[in-house]
Write a structure and sequence with these properties.
The chain contains eleven helices and 16 strands. It is an alpha/beta fold and 364 residues long. The protein has a six-stranded parallel sheet, with helices on both faces. A five-stranded antiparallel sheet has the order 3-2-1-5-4, with helices on both faces. It has a five-stranded antiparallel sheet with strand order 8-7-6-10-9.
Length: 364
């Protein structure tokens, strides 16, 4: 998608008209997932792919109709359709593709600039055309033509961007009545961001539901433990990666991939494992670093971390004991409290009950 967006921005700057085809849903086996896009210029040039070559010719034909003045359209190709066989989609899957013209109102320059700077950003466009928004980093660029619709769309896009998700989402109010409510609108959200990482060190029983909830919320989950009996892949079916290694050694090898969206959870309860990796994590770019243990364990851990050279400013970043106070018990409820704190830190939430707050429920 980086190549596609850069080319789209270049064509837009040059005043070249073009259509963009984007995969919005898939079923079964498909070459590309939601968000994959392809450009078709008015002079016949093609960039990107939606199906690895299976339906590109059919997409080009529809794109030409759109550029000739036709409306934005959603097309579906699957192995059970005669049209799918005609264009060669015989892989067993089904794809749904939105094809629309991308006009000068789409803030492609901002998206390309954010991508170049490594800043996550989402492109939001209505399914039937009509404006566009770039959303990310707490700001929006562009408009859907109505301030209320812009706010509703931005909130919906922020949620999708936080999970690095792509596809259609419905925003606004079904009737459009009520103070500050925007009419309901079907939007395509394209997220340009890697999945946030959840790094779990210590494959104890509490790590199992944490990995599952983290994966359900769109994280790329890594579980690492130096003990082979604990670091067994079958114990963590939702994790993307289960590693047998010393936590500090694994972290040092992979710390270049750690960024502000990364959450680090240390659940080992053993100073020989948790102190070295916590020292590294607190000096890294990780946006969240938490450690499990009692308050007594926490105080002992602070002494050990200071002795290892961790500064007070770095220690101020440590969330320990880990999690929000939900009054929960057991691994599953503890996992909920940990993920709740990760979300609050990432989104800037207070962690307070909404009944104790005033003003909008959602803020950008």
């Amino acid at each position: 998608m980086r190549q596609v967006i850069d080319q789209a921005a270049a064509w837009q700057n040059a005043g070249i008209r073009f259509a963009m085809a984007t995969v919005v849903r898939t079923w079964g086996s498909s070459p590309h997932g939601p968000g994959a896009s392809m450009l078709v210029s008015e002079d016949g040039r093609i960039v990107g792919s939606v199906s690895g070559g299976c339906v590109e010719a059919a997409v080009c034909a529809i794109a030409e109709e759109v550029l000739a003045g036709g409306p934005a359209t959603v097309e579906c190709w699957g192995v059970g359709d005669e049209d799918a066989f005609a264009v060669g989609l015989t892989c067993g899957g089904t794809i749904e593709v939105l094809i629309r013209e991308v006009g000068p109102e789409v803030p492609l320059r901002r998206i390309a600039a954010d991508l170049a700077a490594g800043v996550p950003v989402a492109l939001v466009t209505p399914a039937d055309g009509g404006g566009a928004l770039a959303v990310g980093g707490g700001r929006t660029t562009g408009s859907l033509g109505d301030p209320g619709a812009d706010r509703a769309a931005a909130l919906a896009a922020e949620g999708m961007l936080g999970r690095a998700a792509n596809g259609f989402v419905t925003s606004g109010n079904a009737t459009g009545d009520g103070k500050g409510c925007a009419p309901q609108c079907r939007l395509l959200v394209q997220s340009f961001a890697p999945r946030p990482q959840l790094l779990i060190f210590g494959a104890a029983e509490f790590a199992r539901p944490l990995a599952g909830i983290g994966a359900a919320l769109g994280h790329r989950v890594t579980v690492c433990d130096a003990r082979p009996a604990f670091a067994a892949a079958e114990r963590f079916p939702d994790a993307d990666e289960v590693v047998t290694d010393r936590p500090d050694r694994w972290f040092r090898t992979h710390q270049d991939a750690v960024d502000a969206s990364t959450a680090v959870c240390v659940l080992t309860h053993e100073p020989r494992f948790d102190v070295p990796v916590l020292g590294l994590a607190l000096r890294s770019r990780a946006g969240y670093v938490g450690a499990m243990g009692s308050r007594r364990t926490h105080e002992d851990r602070l002494v050990r971390l200071r002795a290892a050279g961790t500064t007070e400013a770095e220690l101020d970043r440590l969330r320990s004991p880990v999690g929000l106070d939900l009054g929960g018990r057991g691994p599953e409820e503890t996992a909920v409290s940990i993920m709740a704190e990760i979300i609050a830190v990432r989104r800037g939430g207070s962690g307070l009950p909404l009944t104790l707050r005033t003003g909008p429920v959602h803020t950008l």
